[in-house]
Amino acid sequence: MSQPPLLEMRGIVKEFPGVRALDGVDLTIRPGEVHCLLGQNGAGKSTLIKVLSGAHGVDEGTILWDGEPVTFTDPQAALATGIATIYQELDLVDGLSVADNIFLGHERARGGVTRDAEMNRTARELLQTLGHPEIRPTREVGSLSAAGKQIVSMARALSRQAKVIVMDEPSAVLDPDEVDGLFRVVDDLRASGTAIIYISHRLEEIRRIGDRLTVLKDGRTVAGDLSAKDTPTSELITLMTGRTVSSVFPRRSGALPDGPALLSVDALGRDGEFSDVSFAVRPGEIVGLAGLVGAGRSEIVETIFGARRASSGSVTVDGNRLRNGSVDAAVRAGLGLCPEERKSQGLILDDAVYRNVSLASIDRFSRYGVSTEGAERRAAHEAIRSVDVRPDAPDRVIRTLSGGNQQKVVLARWLLRSCKVLLLDEPTRGVDVGARAEIYTLVRQLADSGVAIVVVSSDIDEVLGLSDRVLVIAEGSVVHDGASDAIDASGVLDRILATHDHQKGDAA
């Protein structure tokens, strides 16, 4: 990279009460490069982004733009300089149009009257530049897919003439085809001279899209100016975690035990979402559901759990048929669910860690309607320790924990409940590589103890590596059921595409 730096951050320090979140971070960005920022949850990536975007001030250190010192007192100052940030939780307004979102905060106006025609025309040009002319400027943003909303956020950044665009986990909610589309847009931006700071826990994405990378650990830069394509994965894992991870997928400790199924799903269906789904899971077995976003996998596990009402079929746990559409009956029968959206569906973010752990077992800790809080706290604390939640602070507000530790809390909830069947929907979404390996180990330990487990993941390699058996879901149906070591990722995609092509042929 022979070009001089566009952006430099030197010795950046940011402190909060009792916490030194950034402790001398260095970062150098050049025009027309994709620079990947890696690190475990808690390494300082989010704080660094907020410093760069003007949301946080700098306590020590220097930011240089085109070689000149700059100070960002607020996000508007960073935007005016040429730095735009696309956060993982997109800050779009669903009720407004695409054009209104693109120009939100810097509307085109004259005499106090917005110039809608001009904004629509410019928005159309920006969307065409990004390769998505099919997105209409007048369309309501809330009706777009996750991929469409990402494109609108990029168009907003371009409308500000951004020279550096920060993308925080942009592929987290995209299926493989949408990720390919995202990467085509990133390639076009790079070719135009725009610099991209790309943050992702998915190392395979770093290989595909990145030029250089910087690794953060404990608020410090531990490596910079590394080649994104040539640096070995083992080296990156060691830099991020401080230890060697020889194998992320732990092996079964023994042979799969024989015996009747703990979970039996028979011809389960839900109108418009999936149909005729049948499978069984024995004690100690991990069954994975593989498929693209929208295939019906999450809907299947939510229906098994009773969160959605089935229109046909049945679910049996340990020989007992469950009442249709009853979460209470499912939990009492021994079912547990770690939902896809843990923050909105699985946790009470402003409550204590121990209260989140005890949620499914609260009946154990009350007598005559009065809670025995001491017993609740002790039992929850034991479950927290068993899954190694860090920090070991049961009274801490769960919102302050990293994504990996929040997921461990949800697992601890079902450990405390002693569930027989555990449904895991996207168990490592937004979780760094170190915590991901720990979660895999916990899941395998639960299976080895006799729990029957169903795993849903958009990461096909994760499904294959963690599961004993895999079901491929396409267009709401099971199109393959077999041992996970008898199929690879290409085979999974081939079955999905064959089903899609078959249905297209029938429709024609």
Structural notes for this entry:
There is one protein chain. The protein is α/β, with parallel strands linked by helices. It has three domains: 7-241, Rossmann fold, CATH 3.40.50; 247-251 and 259-334 and 419-508, Rossmann fold; 352-418, no CATH class. It contains 17 helices and 24 strands. It has a six-stranded mixed sheet with strand order 6-9-10-3-11-12, with helices on both faces. β21 (421-425), α15 and β22 form a beta-alpha-beta unit. α4 packs across α5 (146-159). The longest helix has 19 residues, at 489-507. It is globular. The model has no long low-confidence stretch (mean pLDDT 89).
| Percentage of residues in DSSP E strands | 25-35%
Overall tally of domains: 3
Mean pLDDT: 89
CATH architecture type of the largest domain: 3-Layer(aba) Sandwich
The tally of helices reads 17
Number of strands: 24
Give the strand order, joined by hyphens, for the main sheet: 6-9-10-3-11-12
Based on CA atoms alone, the radius of gyration comes out at 24 Å
Q: What global shape is seen?
A: globular
SSE-based structural type:
alpha/beta
Under CATH, the homologous superfamily of the largest domain reads P-loop containing nucleotide triphosphate hydrolases
The percent of residues in helical segments reads 25-40%
